[in-house]
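Schema walk-through. Below, the input block comes first and the output block second. Nothing else is stored per chain. Lengths vary across the set, and this one has 70 residues.
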Amino acid sequence: MAKDVDEWAREFEVKLAKLAPDMQATQALLEQEGFRVDSGNKSSTGWYLTAYDVNNKNRGSIKVQSMEPK
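--- output ---
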């Protein structure tokens, strides 16, 4: 039985949290999960990536953001 989107999202959030300091590893994980990163930015206070689901699994788009510790 396929996982529902909510269950997948909870599990994926845990994976993303482990990669929070690493923008490139986060992008690689997004691509591995079937997302295409379409924008991103890195600054002295952190970084963000936005991506959309290229496999049309009704997951929509996602924005991942990390902030550098003070």
